[in-house]
Specification:
CATH superfamily of the largest domain: Vaccinia Virus protein VP39
CATH class of the largest domain: Alpha Beta
Order of helices and strands: HHHHHEHEHEHHEEHEEHEEE
Helix content: 40-55%
Structural class: alpha/beta
Bound molecules: S-adenosylmethionine
Strand order of the largest sheet: 6-2-1-7-8-10-9
């Protein structure tokens, strides 16, 4: 791939999904593109680029899927899930109760293969009083990751190291050497294809998890996304981001909080004028 071709792809990918590839990512991009070109018999990166930009939407989705990094695991960043269980959930439950509502609405934005929303579902299910509903919206740009999430079957050795025996017992069933999420837990979650670059239409959200997604975004896209979250999260609701990510460096409308090593952000004021 020439430098000129790299720039064409870089700009296209940024425009489509907010992921900003730096010059150091050229080999990564090249390897994914060349592999895909071989599968569909295209000879040069430029012709592959033309194919995508001439309106082949499904090929564009395929390319974006190939570029996403889907690394995840159950109870990833355990201190954050402790904070979620001990402070955040009781707080949002109290607020809903005061409003006479018995529902929690949580969004796992960039849910990858499902480990994050299933963890949220397990922890929330333990916390809500009887008769409450927990609705979890789980979205991602990667169709292949969403397929795995929908299947709900996991390799014990791969992503389940951190799952306590208590949760395994209550929320999984054995299938061969793997474990499958129980249907009752799955029903709490709606998985959906969604590109975070676009409008989502969600509102009345208590908590957003968007962890290890924005690391691929530049400053402008990062801010745009945080503003969208600010808009859909209820007053005093929460935003949880990855441990290597931060929004403290700008006036985002969220306040940083932490307990032990768990971190989160609380929405502290209404939308900017
Ligand atoms: C590293 S995984 C993180 C998964 C999970 N949130 C966690 O922390 O374990 C990043 C996920 O973000 C998704 N992603 C990246 N850009 C996206 C976009 N523009 N819209 C939606 N999802 C995106 C990727 O497909 C990938 O599944």
């Amino acid at each position: 791939m020439t430098d000129a071709e790299f720039k064409l792809f870089r700009d296209l990918i940024y425009a489509e999904c907010g992921m900003y590839l730096r010059p150091g990512n050229k080999d990564f991009l090249n390897s994914r593109v060349v592999k895909r070109m071989a599968e569909i018999n295209v000879n040069t990166p430029y012709w592959y680029y033309r194919l995508i930009t001439d309106g082949n939407k499904s090929e564009l989705i395929k390319l974006l899927d190939l570029l996403t990094i889907n690394e995840t695991s159950f109870f990833r960043n355990k201190p954050q899930f402790d904070l979620f269980r001990k402070k955040i959930l009781p707080d949002v439950i109290k607020k809903r109760e005061e409003a006479g509502e018995r529902v929690l609405r949580i969004w796992s934005a960039g849910c990858s293969t499902g480990e994050e929303p299933y963890t949220i579902a397990m922890v929330a299910n333990e916390a809500v009083p009887k008769g409450w509903k927990v609705r979890i919206f789980a979205s991602d740009l990667s169709l292949s990751a969403l397929e795995t999430a929908n299947r709900g079957i996991y390799d014990v050795k791969k992503t389940m190291q951190e799952v306590d025996g208590y949760y395994v017992e209550r929320y999984f069933e054995s299938v061969g050497n793997s474990l499958r999420i129980l249907e009752s837990l799955k029903r709490m979650i709606v998985f959906d294809f969604h590109n975070l670059k676009l409008e989502h239409g969600l509102s009345d959200i208590d908590i957003v998890f968007c962890r290890n997604v924005m690391i691929y975004f530049d400053e402008e896209e990062h801010k745009r996304l945080i503003r969208k979250f600010h808009k859909c999260i209820n007053d005093n609701g929460y935003l949880l981001i990855g441990h290597a990510e931060s929004i403290q460096w700008w006036d985002s409308g969220f306040e940083f909080l932490h307990d032990k090593k768990g971190t989160a952000y609380k929405k502290v004021r209404a939308e900017k004028p």
